[in-house]
Amino acid sequence: MTGTFPKLTDARLRTAAFFAIAITLSADFALHAESARQPNIVFFLVDDLGYRDIGANNAETFYETPNVDRLAASGTNFTNGYAANPVCSPTRYSILTGRYPTRAGTTNFFSGTRGGRFKPAPLNDRMPLQDVTLAEALKEHGYHTFFAGKWHLGPDESFWPEHQGFDVNRGGFSRGGPYGGKRYFSPYGNPRLTDGPDGEHLPIRLARETSDFIRQHRGEPFFAYLAFYSVHTPLMGPKELVDKYTEKAKRLGLTEQEAFAPEEQVWPDAKQERKVRTLQAHATYAAMVESMDTAVGNVLSTIKELNLENDTIVCFTSDNGGLSTSEGSPTSNLPLRGGKGWVYEGGIREAYIIRAPMIKDQVATCDTPVISTDFYPTLLDLAGLPPRAEAVDGVSLKPLLDGQPSIDRDALFWHYPHYSNQGGFPGGAVRMGDWKLVERYEDGHVHLYNLREDIGERNDVADRHPDRVKQMRNRLHAWYQDVDAKFLMPHKDGKTPWRP
């Protein structure tokens, strides 16, 4: 083709340059708008899962958790992650409000009023409606919100998920476990979950409901909160998986090993010694852990299938430590002491994972102590949203995810003025650096442990460090006043429990 092109005048050059710049800016803006989209949030909460139950925290675990382990490998695994309480409802409250449960008097599982040498502290058995939940905070900024699984945060419908910021509720009501119908298998007898085909497995169903919600809102920011009933009692699993782990335990020679050791007995007039499980070998519990892990994998696969991995924050944690001292004692938390219901590490240290794709070069592991109250401000921060005006006790972990060595906080606190169903004593604790002080509420006796040297809390060094004990105890008692902590009450016999 031959010919001549028109000569471009200065005006034409300026016009052409203007359109070229406009097109470039328009493309850049579109790319920026896409990258600046509010991230989705998927939150996995497992009931009663022990810190040492997943492979990411225990290479020798009896259980198989490949999906959770891959999640840990793709995000940040906090090796000193904690629940705010050694039992379920208070920690659930802390995640959804960013507040220590003691502030609301929600210090035991809801309906937990067991007594011992003294009466327990008063218990508020509901999450106050005036507290702004994470779901409500996100809804204010256009998020679609979804809840599936165990709620256990209020006695009647007015306190259930749909009245606490969630658009959709699949399975959340007052009960703390799957106690209706066939329990972990359909029919469920759950007023917020329709029955599936006979024998359908609950964790798989909850994962499917979560995946369906994600597909429905794939083009909009969403918050999907999957709070498994697993691995809480009743201990039930699919037969093929129970058979698998029964054979595995035999193959490894675990059925011939001693599985229990003595633990302190707290209940007065108990007729038998308290035992704690020291060996992971429970086939049914292992089946429950694998089913939970499969359900996590199903949701993560949906996120990948929809090409949402770069737009979705994923969190994974538990509400308290593994069940090791009662109700079948299905798991061992060793070398951590105790388990669910105890303020020892076995009752409060948790799997704690955050994958935040908007952070380039996210650190793989972090040993800075963090706690369940931190999820609330962290997720708002990662989503680019302003912090809430309401006071929260958690702090944003974004700097830690980004590789900074520390955050501006000197202590973590626990307050459990109850006699746990699992045998744990009423007590409080404070962690400052490597040091942890435990205070018993019956008589005010304290213990001091260096967790870096003594993760099993067996070597009480309080007598060797009186100045440190005084400092940490003063810090703990000041916190009691700040959160208006309540303590044990006397029985009619007139004996008075210790008071700080």
UniProtKB/TrEMBL annotation:
Annotated signal sequence range: none
InterPro entries with a match to the protein in the record: Alkaline_phosphatase_core_sf (IPR017850), Sulfatase (IPR050738), Sulfatase_CS (IPR024607), Sulfatase_N (IPR000917)
Pfam families reported in the protein's UniProt record: Sulfatase
Keyword check for Metal-binding: yes
Residue ranges of domain Sulfatase N-terminal in the record: 39-384
Single Gene Ontology MF annotation: arylsulfatase activity
Transmembrane spans: none
Cofactor: Ca(2+)
Enzyme Commission code(s) on record: 3.1.6.1
Keyword set, alphabetical order: Calcium, Hydrolase, Metal-binding, Signal
PROSITE patterns from the UniProt entry: SULFATASE_1, SULFATASE_2
UniProt entry tagged with the keyword Metal-binding: yes
Family: Belongs to the sulfatase family.
Protein name as annotated: Arylsulfatase
Gene: atsA_52
